[in-house]
Amino acid sequence: MTPHLTLTLLFFLLGLVFGSFFNVVGLRAPQKLPFTADRSICPHCKNQLSWCELIPLLSFIFQSGKCRHCQHGISIMYPAIELITGLLFAFAYIKLGLQIELIAALLLIALLVIVFVSDMRYMLIPNNVLLFFFPLFILIRIVSPLTPWWSPIMGALTGGAIIVIIILASRGGMGGGDMKLFVIIGIVLGLDNTLLTLLLASVFGMVVGVVLLSLKIINRKQPVPFGPYIAAAAIVAYFYGEPIVAWYFNFLS
Ligand SMILES: [Zn+2]
């Protein structure tokens, strides 16, 4: 195997393992539970899981998606999050190679996967997670700045301000967690791509909303978490923001 292929595979495996950890963080952080102290248990029969039941992806496949003790189905969310994290880690390495910006990309993926899990499950974005990542991203943008250098500052201010306006105008729908998340996205992505994230998140939310409504999976009154759309939009904007923005202005002119 070439070194490039070996490293791609390594980042994929790293992503699988971290994805399994982000599942735990996303499910435990909102309840303020420690991430490491107690071993994982089956949420149904409360049996402690052994190491062979905690192998990312493989345990799920070999146990055919069922708990070994009580045969209760395991949520597809666990292997799906592991696989997505693995693919995103490998993709980030392929796109960026070994440079400081790769750390920014991996941290961004980490934050967004955790936000995705928490918001899907509890409809909230845990403050302690946002506070953990906030200083890391400021540090990253000092070491690996964007051009122009003030773009992250403007991105954070504009992103946060727009969400505050949406919160005030809509009375619900979005919350303080979404606002703080957009401040962080502003720092990592800069002004243009933060605005693009807002736009894409609304489009994703609308498309998925219409599909879920027409399939009668949700009803009109049901509140839906916005975090998963923000997470997906921020990933697309981070990796493909420049070509999308360029295409958009070409399209307009
Ligand atoms: Zn069980």
Characterization of the model:
One of its GO terms (biological process) is signal peptide processing. It is a multi-pass membrane protein. Residues 13-95 form the Prepilin peptidase A24 N-terminal domain. GO terms for molecular function: aspartic-type endopeptidase activity. This is Type 4 prepilin peptidase 1 Aspartic peptidase. MEROPS family A24A. The longest helix has 39 residues, at 176-214. The protein is built from eight helices and no strands. 70% of the residues lie in helices and 0% in strands. The chain has two domains: 1-98, no CATH class; 125-253, no CATH class. The chain is mainly α and 253 residues long. Helix 1 packs across helix 3, helix 1 (3-28) runs parallel beside helix 4 (100-122) and helix 4 packs across helix 8. The protein is globular. The model has no long low-confidence stretch (mean pLDDT 91). Zinc ion binds next to loops.
